[in-house]
Structures are given as structure tokens and as C-alpha cells.
Amino acid sequence: MRPSIIFFDEIDGLAPVRSSKQDQTHSSIVSTLLTLMERRDCACQIKRHVRTFDIFWITDSNARKEIFQIDTRDWTPKPLDAFLEELAKKCVGYCGAGIKSLCAEAALCALRRCYPQIYKKRPTARQVKSYFKKLCD
């Protein structure tokens, strides 16, 4: 079996402290999770168990700038370093996935601006049929 990494955000909501007031399904989820994670009595203790959990902190400005550089390395022309620095400072709280999404949205905006005819109107069924007919001939 290969190792896996699973990210839990707000694990307290998934597995709070066990009590007699929980319904059967919730108790089952909590019990299974605790059993699989070295049989701790409380989910709160699991979070503090060093061997089980690694903490990934929110990125700082330099890390965000590096992520922007990675996500825009294939762009032509390349964004100026000063611009990426400014973006990194403005995107406080963004993680790698958020920055990647922001870069993808920026690329789509540029595409729409350069090729507006693509987005003006949807093709009719007749246009689609004629297009496929041309491709097949």
C-alpha cells in the first residue's frame, strides 16, 4: 500500500469530542476516525499528536510571489517582477490553489479581450452541423 496525504480543514466539525448526545451515524464516524488515527480518546488530542499531523501555514508574501512566478512561467510576455510582487502583497490569505485559480481567470480574461468573437454568441445547431460537415469532408 502506498502512503497518502489527507487534508482535513476544521477537523473539529467532523469529529468533535465524543458524548452520549451524538446520533448513531455521527458516533460511528468519530469512532472510525479515532480508531484509524491510533485510538485517541478525543479528536482534540489527535490534532496535537505530532507524528500524525503536519501544519501548513498560510503563505507569506515571498511564497505567494514564488507561486505566481511558477503559475505564470509559460506566459508570453512574462509579467514584470514588480507586478508579481505587488500581486503577492495584495493576495494575503491566498494559498497555492487560490493563486493558480486567479492566474487561470486572468488568462481567460485576456483571451476574452483578445478574441471577443469567441464569446459573443453561441453557434446555432445549423452552424454546428455545417462545421462538422466541413470537418468530415
From TrEMBL:
In terms of superkingdom, the source organism counts as Eukaryota
Q: Which residues form the ATPase AAA-type core domain?
A: 2-42
Would you tell me the Gene Ontology cellular component terms?
A: nucleus
One Pfam family name is AAA_lid_3
Looking up Gene3D superfamilies in the UniProt record yields: 1.10.8.60, P-loop containing nucleotide triphosphate hydrolases
InterPro entries documented for this protein: AAA_lid_3, ATAD2-like, ATPase_AAA_core, P-loop_NTPase
Give this protein's Gene Ontology molecular function annotations.
ATP binding; ATP hydrolysis activity; chromatin binding; histone binding
Name of this chain's protein: ATPase AAA-type core domain-containing protein
Keyword annotations for this protein?
ATP-binding, Nucleotide-binding
Family listed: Belongs to the AAA ATPase family.
- Record domain AAA ATPase AAA+ lid: where: 82-120
User: What Gene Ontology biological process does one annotation of this record name?
Assistant: nucleosome assembly
